[in-house]
Amino acid sequence: MKLLAMESSATACSTALCEDETLIAQSFQNNGLTHSRTLLPMVSSLLETCGTTLHEVDLIAVAAGPGSFTGLRIGVAAAKGLAWTEDKPCAACSTLESMAWNLAHTGMEICAVMDARRNQVYNARFLGTGDGLTRLCPDRAIALADLAAELKKSGNPQILVGDGANLCYTTLKEQGLDVRLAPPHLRYQSAWGVARCALDLARAQQLTSAAGLAPNYHRLSQAERERLEKERNKGE
């Protein structure tokens, strides 16, 4: 199965072309440019360089959340547009699970974290089995203090991965937890991880159509929270 994957959930942006588990090519940028400017040109360049057409791609995969609301919308919109023209199946991949794939070979517990602001992180925990992942909790937005308490109960060393790893490292280390930063080249979200997550979704028959593809934000946007707060205030 040939997979085209996109990752635009945070500051970095990447695309990848894979044949099942094998990475054919990947493009990665972390230069501060908006994903609306970089993502589709990266896809086009990647396919052209590989001598591959969109028609030859079997599955379109995208990091669907959690993450930056704007970044997720850009990625999902790009995936829908590419898939719709030829009715390609889509994979809506967990951003956290996708980034954990970078450390699946370690045999250790992996703590995937992204800065969710408001004293929270987006988080999920996994066990790297050597050739795969075992999920230890669902994707969630959790207070850093609550995550620290959960990791204390686990008592196992943790590898921190994701763009929130640096944010969490000092706080968790100060509480006496055995936490380690993933090496820089494996720490950030990558489209290869999205492709590997998508392959498992395909094997589990958990794909969707372009029409059904949607972001999974895991919590309300600031605008939605403010609207609900105004509605509550009016009702009092």
TrEMBL record:
- The highest taxon in the source lineage is Bacteria
Offer one Pfam family short name for this entry: TsaD
Q: Which UniProt keywords apply?
A: Acyltransferase, Transferase
Which EC number applies?
2.3.1.234
Domain Gcp-like, by residue range, is: 34-158
* GO MF annotation, one: tRNA N(6)-L-threonylcarbamoyladenine synthase activity
Q: What is the protein name for this chain?
A: tRNA (Adenosine(37)-N6)-threonylcarbamoyltransferase complex dimerization subunit type 1 TsaB
Identify the species of origin: Flavonifractor hominis
